[in-house]
Write a structure and sequence with these properties.
The structure holds two protein chains of two kinds. By secondary structure, chain A is mostly beta strands. Chain A is built from no helices and eleven strands. In chain A, strands 2, 4, 5, 6, 9, 10 and 11 form a seven-stranded mixed beta sheet that branches. In chain A, strands 1-3-8-7 form a four-stranded antiparallel beta sheet, with no helix packed on it. Chain B is mainly β. Chain B has no helices and eleven strands. Chain B is globular, with a radius of gyration of 13 Å. Chain B starts with a strand and ends with a strand. Classes of the chains: A mainly beta, B mainly beta.
Chain lengths: 115, 114
Amino acid sequence: QQPVQSPQAVILREGEDAVINCSSSKALYSVHWYRQKHGEAPVFLMILLKGGEQKGHEKISASFNEKKQQSSLYLTASQLSYSGTYFCGTVPVMYSGGGADGLTFGKGTHLIIQP
Amino acid sequence: DGGITQSPKYLFRKEGQNVTLSCEQNLNHDAMYWYRQDPGQGLRLIYYSQIVNDFQKGDIAEGYSVSREKKESFPLTVTSAQKNPTAFYLCASSMGMGPGYEQYFGPGTRLTVT
């Protein structure tokens, strides 16, 4: 089932902060974050795993609340280059406790940074 | 430079014709994926492959077919049975299959069927 992202779109001035949320109705094993600029390929930002492990770009900050099945991506002191569409992808916990193979993406959050 | 290539960038076809989209990676990744992207819909998984000569259907496999004869190649055929084939198609790969592996995407192919 597709995760829900909020907000759908946000417009910021350069230097302002933004938070993008991703929530699921299922227990999650991992949450993935990607950014896509118009007409280009999505680029990997971060993975947050059940149990607290994270991997990704050092300048990206995110959280994963396993109990609430939610993740948030924090963009601080935004730069013009942060503009794009942000997608979260979720991997549910299988009945055995491990993670499933499939990654299901949300519909995306459009971020516009103005000078 | 290592990466994923997709060709062509733009593709136009007449309704009723099958069309094959190319995806090649030189990252030595085991897993490869095909996604479809429509405006406002995010990315939806069509097919994925964990190893050579093995692949599984994703969420929207109807009207599509794939092959994985070589590790570096994962072509997607959009058949005439696909009811609404016009979309942006993205190929991706990852080192392994599982919840902790990041995916690397190709530049995409925009298919228009009229």
